[in-house]
Specification:
The chain is α/β, with parallel strands linked by helices. It has 10 helices and 9 strands. Strands 1, 2, 3, 4, 5, 6, 7, 8 and 9 form a 9-stranded mixed β-sheet that branches. Helix 7 (232-247) crosses helix 9 (299-313) and helix 9 (299-313) runs antiparallel to helix 10. The longest helix is centred in the last third of the chain and has 36 residues, at 320-355. The mean pLDDT is 96.
Length: 356
Amino acid sequence: MANVSPSDVDIVIPTIRNLDFLEDWRKFFEQYHLIIVQDGDPSRTVKVPPGFDYELYNRNDIERILGDKAWCISFKDSACRCFGWLMSKKKYIYTIDDDCFVAKDPEGNDIDAIKQHLINLTTPSTPFYFNTLYDPYRDGADFVRGYPFSLREGVPTAVSHGLWMNIPDYDAPTQMVKPWERNTRYVDAVMTVPKGSLMPTCGMNLGFDRERVGAAMYFGLMGAGQPIGRYDDMWAGWCSKVICDHLSLGTKTGLPYLWHSKASNPFVNLRKEFKGIFWQEDIVAFFQKVKLSERATDAEICMLEIAEAVKSDLGHLDPYFEKLAQGMVTWIEAWREQQAKIATDAEKSENKALGA
């Protein structure tokens, strides 16, 4: 693992409630900067335990900062979290839900989730050839016999997808038929998702390299005024995986685990997911076949090309997809504006320091 300074990481938390859960994470999170995105009623005060370094944004802030582009950030949905990495200036992002707590490994040790994500993100991925001993860069593992030496250098890792003990991330129908099922299995493994393979992405325990793929991590339009919910992280996962494949970047899944404390209401979830359960068959087929051009050399251009394809190839399903495609374009416009501002502010700070 490369030596990553806490100053290179932001932790992004979407919430509608007081963040008492941070006490459980204090020994792991206190050294990092938090970006809290408050959803729902902006007049409500969200209480944060003392001792944490944080900035907090609510809907009023989103509309003030983004102006006529604010509509691309979802309202009354955890998809609002992507505003956090829009505001971030750090290389790495870790995002977590406020109903998630520290898990323990089989020896009873507390799991430092953010440390494991940084290990995943600062060691290479192997998307072009599957290593049957999982991640060959972990201690005690290596490339197995038959693995091409020409591919052993790997590629940079852009996404680290963690898992959950206790409450699994199930869809509503599965929740209904397995209401008491809990994940008690700790699998001590990290693996690269192969090139060309898609995966369901969960946003409650997710790390990524903001500089490489932050623009691709658009948690699509969900929540108030939208016909679908609970597919925001899936959308970001599908987009980012296709983009990682195109740009020769890696996506890992497995460790770290956290403790997901409560199951959401399956009947409420079914109302949110209902159309998505049908649409996802077409959406997955779309992402399996979408092609990006040679001129798509960064995540921003890739997202614009995907948006155009969404409009032309998925628009027949529902007018929502045309709106989602425009949301992706607007997101990239906002992203570019914010990155330009960050660069300008950094240049001013550097000039001021040189002048001093």
